[in-house]
Known about the structure:
Protein name: Corrinoid adenosyltransferase
Subcellular location: Cytoplasm
Strand content: 5-15%
Oligomer: single chain
CATH topology: Hypothetical Protein Ta1238, Chain: A
EC number: 2.5.1.17
Family: Belongs to the Cob(I)alamin adenosyltransferase family.
Number of domains: 1
CATH architecture: Up-down Bundle
CATH superfamily: Cobalamin adenosyltransferase-like
Enzyme class: transferase
Amino acid sequence: MVVLNKIYTRTGxxxxxxxxxxxxxxxxxxxxxxxxxxxEVNSTVGLARLQATGDVDLALERIQNDLFDLGxxxxxxxxxxxxxxxxxxxRVTDNQVTRLEAEIDEMNKVLEPLRSFILPGGTALxxxxxxxxxxxxxxxxxxxxxxxxxDINPAAVKYLNRLSDWFFVGARMANDGGxxxxxxxxxxxx
Length: 190
């Protein structure tokens, strides 16, 4: 159980923060950048939820919870070698990735194939979902960068990769099943 009765601790005033295992690292470390950007994705999902209703809102709520799982996963270095761990670290699972894939496939069934790249926009929900997509792509890049330096859970990268695809397809659904997608016109303003 989490209990937060004091929000500021002053322990980060020198530019360091504690990871989930208690280790202190620079706030600009690859690991902190990765899970910090996952937190940013979660905030953009919160914005999208302001426009979402019904099943879409429920799916976004599940994604927000998954993103907290992912942040917990990324903030805790590989604990298999740590005999001091009080509990098994929370890790994103392939089942969470598979759920995203199933939801993408279900949404994609009603969409016409793309014949042009689309611009972020259309409805407010679609625009927010495109924002979620681009921030999740950044989180993915930073997580891949972290994976080049340290061992991480491979499902974390898979999850972020599928998540940005989910946001893309979800944005098309929010644009009346793709009918209101804003199409890119190459060289239109030359």
